[in-house]
């Protein structure tokens, strides 16, 4: 039996250049540590240890890639192999900055503010108060089912309502809240931001955010905000200037094409995409002291980066790793123990191995395979035949491929505001639902999604308006 994980690295969270001792539980009496440096494989003979073998080596790069050569083969991230594994099957160890210790194993609870709980009814938008997409917004009664107007429909939940619910959430064992966007926006999902420095007044403004933050601090709980830094709302003044004046500095913050069209999130024209090749975009979103990723670290403990896999230059995700790394480091420069994880909807491994973020929403490596196994259908409703062994292979393959420290920091979920709710996908089968949540709670960062509260969340099958 050969075993190696983060618990076998001392220190487990090294500084770049610091020596780390790597331990391998094995019955083998001899072995060699192989690690990649400057394109070459270096060799370090291992010394005896009471439960196997050990070797000490400096972490010269992040990620630091290595495997073990033993008499019976090569031990990498995916197990024992007869021949030298590819680099992507080596163990990957990162150097600091790394996920904060408070986040490892923390129980998260996601909240969609407009639909969670109403603390001050007078804050709710009025029927027809403004136009969205050329049509008046709708004010819905709290228990009225969602209609066809989607993001035009407002229920009037607010941050004071979240504050009222803290005793209940704390009793559930929740340790951190993740709020979907709270900054001023014309839609109920608020993924089309028009002012990054103003908490939406219909949610209670900065007064409510401060009260919530202070109450969470008093309970030893944490607050994660949703950072929509891939795109802005079309009503944002910066984009309006770019539209109105092609010679304005703001024009370069976005990618315009010769025919006058512009890059946007998924082709949705009311969500124009930011261009990080622009020095002004870089100043306003990354490096400047007023950049929202920095500015709000006084009232939050971290960020979830929306569509993190799409952030980049020239209307694409070019240099994506560079800008994810820069956004994460900006937050950590303001708050050393900040957690910054991303919405990575597909394969998370290439991005996370590039030492960019503290983790990611675990769709591909957890939510999708678990729900396919239990429901017999994929995310889009297509029939899937997944045996328990197939599930194990999928989960292990993703887990093993992650850098060692991030195995403990993935945001593990079954559903979210962006995909159908788990209980609905299981057709109301509560026993299977319990099985799914039991599996979630064996993960590193279990996440609870919008559980119903008095005067709070809707039927879990309906979901919240997606952004």
TrEMBL record:
**InterPro entries under this entry?**
GH, GH13_cat_dom
Annotated Glycosyl hydrolase family 13 catalytic domain ranges read 110-462
Keyword tags: Glycosidase, Hydrolase
Gene Ontology terms: biological process: carbohydrate metabolic process
List the transmembrane segments.
none
> Does the entry feature the keyword Protein transport, yes or no?
no
Q: Name one GO molecular function term.
A: hydrolase activity, acting on glycosyl bonds
- Domain of life of the organism in this record? Bacteria
Answer whether the UniProt record assigns the keyword Hydrolase to this protein: yes
Q: What is this protein called?
A: Maltodextrin glucosidase
Organism (species)? Thermus thermophilus
Origin organism lineage:
Bacteria, Thermotogati, Deinococcota, Deinococci, Thermales
């Amino acid at each position: 039996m050969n075993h190696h994980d983060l618990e076998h690295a001392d220190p487990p969270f090294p500084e770049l250049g610091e020596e780390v001792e790597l331990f391998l539980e094995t019955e083998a009496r001899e072995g060699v540590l192989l690690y990649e440096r400057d394109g070459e494989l270096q060799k370090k003979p291992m010394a005896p240890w009471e439960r196997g073998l050990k070797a000490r080596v400096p972490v010269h790069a992040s990620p630091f890639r290595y495997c073990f050569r033993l008499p019976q083969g090569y031990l990498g991230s995916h197990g024992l192999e007869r021949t030298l594994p590819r680099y992507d099957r080596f163990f990957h160890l990162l150097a600091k900055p790394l996920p904060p210790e408070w986040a490892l194993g923390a129980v998260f609870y996601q909240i969609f503010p407009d639909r969670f709980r109403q603390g001050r009814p007078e804050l709710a938008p009025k029927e027809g108060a403004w136009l969205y997409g050329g049509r008046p917004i709708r004010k819905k009664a709290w228990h009225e089912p969602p209609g066809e107007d989607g993001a035009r429909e407002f229920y009037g939940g607010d941050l004071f309502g979240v504050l009222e619910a803290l005793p209940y959430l704390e009793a559930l064992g929740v340790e951190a809240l993740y709020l979907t966007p709270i900054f001023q926006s014309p839609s109920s999902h608020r993924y089309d931001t028009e002012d990054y420095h103003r908490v939406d007044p219909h949610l209670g403004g900065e007064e409510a955010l401060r009260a919530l933050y202070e109450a969470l601090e008093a309970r030893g709980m944490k607050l994660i905000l949703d950072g929509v830094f891939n795109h802005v709302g079309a009503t944002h003044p910066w984009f309006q200037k770019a539209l109105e004046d092609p010679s304005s500095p703001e024009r370069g913050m976005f990618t315009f094409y010769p025919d006058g069209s512009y890059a946007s999130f998924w082709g949705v024209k009311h969500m124009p995409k930011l261009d990080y090749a622009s020095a002004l975009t870089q100043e306003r979103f990354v490096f400047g002291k007023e950049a929202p990723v920095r500015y709000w670290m006084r009232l939050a403990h971290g960020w979830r980066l929306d569509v993190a896999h799409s952030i980049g230059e020239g209307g694409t995700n070019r240099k994506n790793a560079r800008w994810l790394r820069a956004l994460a480091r900006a937050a950590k420069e303001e708050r050393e123990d900040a957690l910054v994880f991303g919405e990575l909807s597909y394969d998370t491994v290439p991005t996370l191995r590039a030492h960019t973020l503290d983790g990611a929403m675990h769709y591909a490596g957890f939510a999708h395979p678990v729900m396919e196994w239990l429901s017999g259908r994929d995310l889009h409703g297509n029939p899937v035949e997944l045996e328990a062994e197939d599930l194990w292979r999928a989960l292990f393959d993703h887990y093993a491929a992650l850098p060692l420290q991030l195995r403990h920091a993935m945001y593990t979920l079954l559903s979210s505001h962006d995909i159908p709710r788990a209980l609905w996908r299981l057709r109301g089968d509560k026993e299977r639902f319990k099985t799914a949540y039991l599996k979630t709670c064996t993960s590193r960062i279990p996440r609870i999604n919008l559980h119903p509260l008095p005067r709070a969340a809707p039927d879990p099958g309906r979901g919240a308006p997606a952004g």
